[in-house]
Design brief:
Elements: E1 2-8, H1 14-29, E2 32-38, H2 51-56, H3 58-62, E3 81-86, E4 88-89, E5 92-93, H4 95-101, H5 104-110, E6 114-121, H6 126-138, E7 142-150, H7 155-168, H8 185-189, H9 192-204, H10 210-216, H11 224-246, H12 257-285, H13 290-301
Parallel strand pairs: 1-2, 1-3, 3-6, 6-7
Antiparallel strand pairs: 4-5
The protein binds flavin mononucleotide (FMN).
Flavin mononucleotide binds at residues 10-12, 14-15, 49, 54, 57, 87-91, 120-125, 162, 166.
């Protein structure tokens, strides 16, 4: 019997539902022993979020500083396939998932094992996934597949609907003319089409060709505008703000409240003003970057890390 491990952390239950649906074809066949392991921080993050707690999670997310998590009871810790399911916080794997990636337990579990990443996000995940790829490799694992479920709303609309979701805890509509928040139920239910593919490839022992087929089934879709926005925002803006905030102390430190608040204002301004301007520039220059954009789509759809290609 092959053993599959599902590792995940979900606040609202959205990612848990994705994981449980993904596991269905494996559950149904009866040929697999399945372990679900929910990563648990010793001091959990609030859900729904308050404005203060949401922005206070920024520096540790961006700088990838782990929180304390409870060790997972995983028996002999020997699995044939690992599904690492995570959401993204500020272009980084959510702090609980990152904390697991950095743990000694991850080193033992990932070593020499095939790993699939399964993401449940809004729409900005490229920078986080590059980092996760590098950590899986550092832990000795081999990333053989990536599946990304994301919010289908257009970028600005999605920011409003996810804010409603995260601050109210409801996946309903912010107002009648807005789409429902979060990942659509159709996409959550449809994730089994990707796990069917994973199961087929796993059983035939041809995991190396899995990602190509996942991509052709649209398990990953790259938006070139968001790739360029993410890379600029993370490297030129996020890292500077996080270092600035961390100088005033760790999570919840009252001394950093002023800087956290200043960032919250900047963030809102950047989303409402800078992002649309950047979008116009992107459209103007896109025809001249055609080759580069094509290459980016190919690379970010894959599971390899640049230095390892
Ligand atoms: C603090 C915070 C920051 C987030 N930043 C991002 C982000 O950078 N990119 C993105 O696509 N989604 C972002 N999200 C949305 C999450 O990836 C995820 O879709 C949402 O939190 C629901 O996950 P859950 O299953 O844990 O409830 C963020 C959410 C939180 C709470």
């Amino acid at each position: 019997m092959s053993k599959i491990l599902f590792l995940y952390y979900s606040q609202s239950g959205q990612l848990t539902e994705i994981v449980k649906n993904f596991a269905k074809p494996f559950e149904k066949s009866g040929d697999y022993s399945i372990t679900y392991a929910s990563i648990e921080p010793v001091k959990d993050y609030p859900f729904p979020w308050t404005g203060a707690s949401f922005f206070d999670a920024f520096p540790e997310s961006v700088e990838r500083i782990p929180c304390e998590i409870k060790p997972l009871d995983l028996g002999d810790e020997d699995f044939d396939l690992i599904v690492f399911a995570y959401s993204v916080w500020y272009m980084s794997p959510c702090i609980p998932c990152n904390s697991f990636l950095l743990s000694d337990q991850a080193k033992r579990i990932f070593k020499d094992k095939p790993v699939i990443t399964l993401l449940g996000v809004r729409n900005m995940w490229i920078v986080a996934q590059e980092y996760v790829k590098s950590k899986i490799i550092e832990n000795g694992g081999k990333l053989i597949g990536n599946i990304v479920l994301r919010d289908r709303a257009e970028n600005l609309t999605g920011i409003i609907t996810i804010s409603y979701f995260l601050f109210s805890g409801s996946k309903g509509r912010f107002a009648w003319f807005f789409p429902k928040a979060g990942i659509s139920q159709k996409d959550i239910d449809g994730v089994t089409k990707y796990s069917d593919l994973v199961k087929n490839h796993f059983e035939k022992g041809n995991l190396d060709s899995l990602q190509k087929e996942l991509v052709s089934e649209k398990a990953v879709k790259i938006n070139p505008y968001l790739v360029s926005t993410e890379k600029t925002a993370y490297n030129r803006v996020f890292l500077k703000w996080s270092a600035f905030m961390l100088k005033k102390g760790g999570p919840g430190n009252p001394a950093r409240k002023g800087r956290v608040r200043a960032f919250a204002f900047y963030f809102t301004f950047a989303i409402l003003l800078i992002a649309p301007i950047k979008y116009i520039f992107f459209l103007i220059f896109a025809p001249f970057r055609f080759k580069k954009i094509k290459e980016e789509i190919r690379y970010y759809s894959g599971t390899k890390l640049k230095s390892n290609t």
